[in-house]
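We were asked to recover a plausible sequence for a given structure. The inputs and outputs are reproduced exactly as logged, with field labels preserved.

PROBLEM: sequence recovery
POSITIONS: 310
GIVEN STRUCTURE:
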């Protein structure tokens, strides 16, 4: 490809109770709920999108809340750790905030970078690290200013059943560069400034099972429809089996599975989240695609009501 992958577009996880999910990502992490819709493949389940003010690519954590569903098992074939990034010097603020919000954390270090490691209420493994790279967020919540706010993804730690094959996919197919090794970790870097650092943890050998507290898939950025079609052809030429293009309303998507079991998506940056809601109202009402509108009343009676923290 002439233009390598720039980094992560979004990460989608399976969580539990939707109100607990919203409370954590909004009230603890200070992200904005930018879209409240449903899983188009399972319309009785919310699909919630959290990010910066406009839900910019590289900032979007998305969730499928399965209330009272079985816990999953984090293991190979999954994103093991989702890493958020804040401005340089902001980690002491987040130590105080996580403590105040009664969110237990550990301090960790990888490749010379310090992070705060913790889990969300449903068991997802998360980290907050600090980097000067990437634009500051202009979304504020409580005492979080742009000097402390989560900018977006720093990257992710991947657990794969075939580290060599996944590494080859990241470098030879997707265009990331291998930039270092440390213990069980191999680090890869994309050219973008958010969601651009991927670490493979080669020590994880037990296979994961989908369920509450696990990541469903990781999505990479395509600049537009043409770029996505080029990627579709490109990964097919390298022996992978991408799906047809699927319209997810806020982006278009193709999916394929790597040889280590990870489900990869390539999602377009446009059209984004602002075409069906004005910016001040993002995430405040349930949005459905045209083909689900006739079932709105039924859907609204199935999904649990949620309140956005103010």
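RECOVERED SEQUENCE:
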């Amino acid at each position: 490809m002439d233009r390598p992958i720039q980094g992560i577009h979004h990460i989608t996880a399976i969580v539990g109770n939707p109100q607990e999910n919203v409370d954590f990502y909004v009230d603890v992490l200070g992200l904005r709920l930018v879209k409240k819709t449903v899983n188009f493949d399972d319309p009785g389940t919310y699909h919630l999108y959290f990010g910066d003010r406009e839900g910019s690519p590289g900032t979007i954590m998305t969730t499928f809340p399965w209330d009272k569903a079985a816990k999953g098992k984090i293991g190979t074939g999954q994103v093991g750790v989702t890493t958020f990034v804040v401005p340089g010097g902001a980690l002491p603020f987040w130590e105080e905030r996580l403590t105040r919000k009664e969110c237990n954390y550990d301090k960790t270090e990888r490749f010379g970078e310090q992070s705060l490691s913790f889990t969300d209420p449903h068991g997802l493994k998360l980290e907050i690290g600090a980097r000067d790279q990437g634009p500051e967020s202009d979304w504020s919540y409580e005492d979080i200013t742009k000097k402390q706010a989560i900018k977006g993804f720093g990257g992710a730690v991947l657990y794969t059943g075939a580290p060599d094959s996944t590494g080859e996919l990241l470098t030879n197919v997707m265009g990331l560069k291998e930039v270092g090794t440390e213990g069980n970790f191999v680090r890869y870097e994309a050219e973008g400034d958010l969601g651009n650092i991927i670490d493979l943890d080669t020590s994880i050998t037990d296979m994961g099972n989908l369920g509450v507290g696990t990541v469903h898939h990781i999505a990479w950025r395509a600049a537009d429809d043409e770029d996505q079609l080029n990627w579709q052809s490109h990964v097919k030429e390298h022996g992978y089996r991408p799906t047809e293009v699927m319209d997810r309303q806020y982006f278009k998507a193709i999916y394929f599975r790597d040889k280590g079991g990870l489900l990869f998506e390539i999602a377009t940056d446009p059209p984004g989240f602002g075409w069906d809601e004005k910016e001040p109202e993002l995430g405040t009402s349930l949005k459905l695609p045209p083909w689900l509108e006739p079932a709105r009343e039924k859907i609204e009676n199935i999904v649990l009501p949620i309140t956005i923290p103010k």
